Structures are given as C-alpha cells and as structure tokens.
Amino acid sequence: MDAPLHLAQDPEADALLGRSPLAALVGMLLDQQVPMEWAFTGPATIARRMGTDDLDAHEIVAFEPETFARLLSDKPAVHRYPASMATGVPPAPQELGGGSSQLCQYLVEHYDGDPEAIWRDVDSGRELLRRLEELPGFGKQKAQIFLALLGKQLGVRPTGWREAAGAYGEPDSHRSVADITGPDSLARVRAHKQELKAAARAAKSATTTRTVKTAKTTGTGRSSRAGKGTKSSGK
Fold it and tell me: With contact defined as beta carbons under 8 Å apart, do 118 and 103 qualify?
C-alpha cells in the first residue's frame, strides 16, 4: 500500500496514511466528533510520540492502557475524547465505539497484527465489508466509507466493491473522506456534511413541533371532556 492521500491536509501525516494500512484504519476510527483533518493527523501524532515512523499493532497492544491513554491525551490531544479513543473506555459519547488499542488487539488476534490481511485475499466487496464491520469501532457506515476509500484511492477493488460501499462508492461524489483528494474536494465534502446536519436538525424540529401540537390537541380534548363531566356532576 503506497498511495498519495490528502485526508489530513498535512504532508507528513498524509504520507503515513498513504503507506501504512494501520495508520489509515486508526485515522478512520478517530474520524468522529472531530474535524476530519484532526482525526487523520492523529496516526502521525501517535507514531511520533511512540518514537517511530509507523504504527505497529503489536507495539500498541503492548502498552499499558493508562500509558497509551496518556500518549493520546498529551497536548495537543489526538481527539476530543483521547482516553476513550485510546482504550475504548468511557466517559465519551456511546456512539464512539472501540478505541485504538482494542482495534489493534483485534488485528493481533485475527490477522496476526497485519491490517492489510483484511483485504489482501478478499474476493468480494460484500466479504470485505463484513470484515470491516467486525472491527472494533467500525459500524456499517464507517466500514462502507473505508471500503470506498480503499476502492477509490488505494486500489483495493474486489468484485462488487462499489455496491458494498453503498452511496459512498458512487463515482464523482463528495460524501466522505473517500472523496477527498485536496482542499477543494475537502470543502465540498464538508459542505455535504453540513447539508446533512441541517436537514437532520430541520427534521428533528419538525418532529418536535408535530409532537407538541399533538400533545396540546390531546390535552385540550381531555380538558374539555373533564369540564363537561364536572358540570354534569354539579347537576
């Protein structure tokens, strides 16, 4: 694996992402609740603090959890929730899922610490998606985005990879990090994400308004019936 990536918008960090499968996976894991550039700069920061020019799953697993958490927490922190993203231990939003050390432990147990083995011998996009979804911290959406990144920019294209990646696999789209190739595409992806958030907020607001109206209507009906009942008992 050796490809030019521009996810961190930093030459050193992007060079590591392009040559290191584990760095790319860790960056994808970190890409939640923080700006994309911050997330994908994380692997290079971790490697530098470990005193190495690459990430190794066995080395990360060998760290004491508290030590590895401090490594991610030192300023500047690699994430908004550095300790949780190191070990997967709360406190942090529930949706964050697993941490980097949990991911590496899984890779050691299932792939002898070699992340590239996840896709090296895979024969279909569906199977690759299944393997990615099994990784700690990778739900279906994150797995599909990483699958799209592999296909679009890293040359990993098993049969049916676009279909398995869903909308993220569509050509000429700007939906996710899989479509970022420079500052312009980054801006377009960010604009797309803002549109999705705005639509979600609008939908939530509309739902809340309908709920309030329904509650008021129902409440008025009960009050009206109760009033009639009171008059009747008075007679």
Answer: no
